[in-house]
């Protein structure tokens, strides 16, 4: 498919997982169109050629018997509009069912026939059966027309069978039981269950709404020098200056131009400690200002803020499908036809073998009603939705459900060293000059800084900082500059070739082993080594020290407690890497790995790990490795390209967030398994009981509604503090 365009549709009228499959099948009848339909979020993510417009998609969804509206901005539209007609149908079913429902237990308790007259039952049942249940019939018809089946088919068959049978008995004057109350109460219970289930699903999807509600609706805009006026946020544009008073939520993304304050970013990162903000520091919409007053230049507002981006990411992830859902879809596809066959067999066996067609109809209706695959359809998406929302609250952004599922099974976690296991703030500690060096230390540092000018590598930062601190006033113009990835930088100064390169064994024998001896001593202190070359000969050996993150050792220990192995991946020399690895407690070290070779190392480790591997990094050169792992994790303080390549992003920039992400994924997968167990065991136990006549249609309807609600409620337990 070329030039694919993505559309997001908000759906209405979905009553079970098979309804979602019906919509998917309808959409994919369009040429070159692929769709993901999520029952729990009631959304469809559709990808297709530019020639397919949103109006075409809405048309085919409506032709399948469901409603759809296009979602223009995921940060603004998260809930379908309230369906007033659906509420009227619901309350009509309740009002008509109550007299019948109250009479049934009263008759059981008193031992007398307390049922309403048959005519009254008929009058109460008819509007429910013919009008309230009409959406079920419509959904069943469209599903059958598309060659599929869903909950609507089961409900329609079951309740219509009971209603039509009762009408025939009433009109014929035959002295036999009628089941108007069964059809009415079943429909009322199913609609009650759907109503409660919908409310529970909205509670599970509220993570996005909680994020978006953090941003205030107004801001103090500078109208004139030093004069600020409160205006709606829609009037703010990038480049404007806004004032944030103490205790207020920051309304925009911006850069501080005046003032200083401590800002709580817990709502974005999960980090409880406020961050000090001063001149030129970045601030983010939705964060909470402390005691100070800040004046900021706006860089992002509304949907262009970091907060809005997070909300979009969470919304897309909640709507994505976990791989385990594919199995559920296959089961649901053949489940409904199988239940219809079982209901027919129940009817025939009871009527022919036992000679009781009356009981046969009741048992068949009970089988149809109790077998609705609602709980099965909700088992996976509700857990995914709550899990991803809970992760966002903790500062763990999960890009899609696939990443969440894969993170639960990884057996090895691979860490990039610089900037991930360490602070990434290298500092020059040693500059060893050749015994007969023609230059002074300051001059060599100035040359190295000239070569590294413009580089974002931590070594380059350290060289420039040291050269600035020891400036000797010399300025060098470089020509013929080239950057060889993983090796170093090269250029000419006054016609002479210079370079700043990684230390390698090829330099060991220069100057009668002098450099090898010096490098060996420095490597024992876990220092990163670079060499300044002059005419392709070593001129100076530069040593840089980095500090391990405060939580690095704790993180490795926690991973070991979870039964996982930790591997350190670095371009540093083997001796230096070994010292750092031993200090941190990692299980294995892959040293002297060039940036281009990181992905290959990850693939090699992946081949040896059946459960998969997780790669944690933050830099540009980590992006291919992140993409090659089963799950890539990007530190929130890292480069955008690394974050784009990762399946999980740690906004709080804490290394222990890796452990939190794995534990969250494991808990979410555990909930999915529990939900699927509940759904399957419910049907395995309930269908035989209904076929044996031990469950009436009314009890079956109530049990079916409770099963769906219990699955959603179990998923909501992911929100509990742990």
Automatic annotation (TrEMBL):
Residues 16-43 form a coiled coil. GO terms for biological process: copper ion export; copper ion homeostasis. Pfam families: E1-E2_ATPase (PF00122), HMA (PF00403), Hydrolase (PF00702). Keywords: ATP-binding, Cell membrane, Coiled coil, Membrane, Metal-binding, Nucleotide-binding, Translocase, Transmembrane, Transmembrane helix. One of its GO terms (molecular function) is ATP binding. NCBIfam families: ATPase-IB1_Cu, ATPase-IB_hvy, ATPase_P-type. This is Copper-translocating P-type ATPase. It comes from Fluviibacter phosphoraccumulans. The lineage of its organism: Bacteria, Pseudomonadati, Pseudomonadota, Betaproteobacteria, Rhodocyclales.
């Amino acid at each position: 498919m070329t030039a694919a365009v993505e559309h997001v549709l908000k759906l209405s009228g979905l009553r079970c997982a098979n309804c979602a499959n019906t919509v998917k099948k309808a959409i994919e009848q369009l040429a070159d169109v692929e769709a993901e339909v999520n029952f729990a979020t009631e959304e469809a993510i559709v990808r297709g050629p530019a020639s397919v417009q949103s109006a075409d998609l809405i048309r085919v969804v409506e032709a399948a018997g469901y409603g759809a509206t296009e979602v223009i901005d995921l940060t603004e539209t998260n809930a379908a509009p309230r369906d007033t007609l659906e509420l009227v149908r619901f309350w009509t079913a309740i009002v008509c069912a109550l007299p019948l429902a109250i009479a049934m237990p009263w008759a059981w308790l008193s031992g007398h026939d307390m049922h309403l007259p048959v005519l009254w039952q008929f009058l109460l049942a008819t509007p429910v059966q013919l009008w309230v249940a009409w959406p079920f019939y419509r959904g069943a018809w469209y599903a059958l027309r598309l060659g599929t089946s869903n909950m609507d088919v089961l409900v329609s068959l079951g309740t219509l069978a009971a209603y039509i049978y009762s009408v025939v008995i009433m009109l014929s004057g035959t002295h036999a039981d009628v089941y108007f109350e069964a059809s009415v109460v079943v429909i009322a219970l199913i609609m009650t269950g759907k109503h409660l289930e919908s409310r529970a699903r909205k509670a599970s999807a509220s993570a996005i709404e909680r994020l978006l509600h953090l941003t205030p609706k107004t801001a103090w805009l500078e109208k004139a020098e030093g004069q600020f006026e409160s205006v709606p946020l829609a009037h703010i544009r990038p480049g404007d200056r806004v004032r944030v008073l103490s205790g207020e939520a920051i309304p925009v993304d911006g850069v501080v131009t005046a003032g200083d304050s401590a800002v709580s970013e817990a709502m974005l990162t999960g980090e409880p400690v406020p961050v000090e903000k001063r001149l030129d520091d970045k601030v983010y919409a939705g964060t909470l200002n402390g005691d100070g007053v800040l004046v900021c230049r706006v860089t992002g507002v509304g949907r262009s803020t970091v907060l809005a981006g997070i909300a979009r990411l969470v919304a897309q992830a909640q709507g994505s499908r976990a791989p385990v859902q594919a199995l559920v879809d296959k089961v649901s596809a053949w489940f409904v036809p199988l239940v219809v066959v079982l209901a027919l067999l129940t009817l025939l066996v009871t009527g022919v073998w036992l000679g009781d067609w009356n009981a046969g109809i009741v048992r068949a209706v009970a089988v149809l009603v109790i077998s609705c695959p609602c709980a099965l359809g909700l088992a996976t998406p509700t857990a995914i939705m709550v899990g991803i929302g809970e992760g966002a609250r903790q500062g763990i952004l999960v890009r899609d459900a696939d990443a969440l599922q894969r993170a639960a099974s990884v057996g090895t976690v691979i860490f990039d060293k610089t900037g991930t296991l360490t602070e990434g703030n290298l500092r020059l500690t040693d500059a060893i000059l050749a015994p007969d060096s023609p230059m002074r230390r300051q001059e060599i540092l100035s040359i190295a800084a000239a070569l590294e000018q413009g580089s974002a590598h931590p070594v380059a930062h350290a060289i420039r900082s040291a050269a600035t601190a020891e400036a000797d006033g010399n300025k060098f113009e470089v020509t013929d500059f080239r950057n060889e990835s993983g090796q170093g930088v090269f250029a000419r100064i006054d016609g002479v070739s210079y370079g700043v390169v990684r230390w390698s064994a090829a330099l060991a024998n220069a100057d009668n082993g002098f450099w090898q001896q010096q490098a060996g001593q420095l490597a024992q202190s876990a220092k990163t080594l670079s060499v300044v070359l002059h005419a392709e000969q070593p001129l100076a050996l530069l040593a840089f020290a980095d500090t391990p993150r405060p939580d690095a050792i704790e993180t490795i220990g926690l991973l070991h407690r979870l039964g996982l192995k930790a591997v350190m991946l670095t371009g540093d020399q083997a001796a230096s890497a070994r010292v750092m690895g031993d200090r941190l407690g990692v299980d294995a070290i892959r040293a002297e790995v060039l940036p281009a070779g990181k992905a290959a190392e990850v693939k090699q480790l992946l081949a040896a790990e059946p459960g998969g591997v997780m790669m944690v990094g933050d830099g540009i050169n980590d992006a291919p490795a992140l993409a090659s792992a089963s799950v890539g994790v990007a530190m929130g303080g890292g480069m955008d390209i690394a974050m784009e390549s990762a399946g999980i992003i740690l906004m709080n920039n804490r290394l222990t967030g890796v452990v939190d992400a794995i534990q969250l994924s494991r808990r979410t997968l555990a909930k999915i398994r529990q939900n699927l167990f509940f759904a399957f065991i419910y049907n395995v136990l309930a269908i035989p009981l209904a076929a044996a006549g031990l469950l009436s249609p009314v009890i079956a309807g109530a049990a079916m509604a409770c099963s769906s609600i219990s699955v959603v409620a179990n998923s909501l337990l992911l929100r509990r503090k742990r």
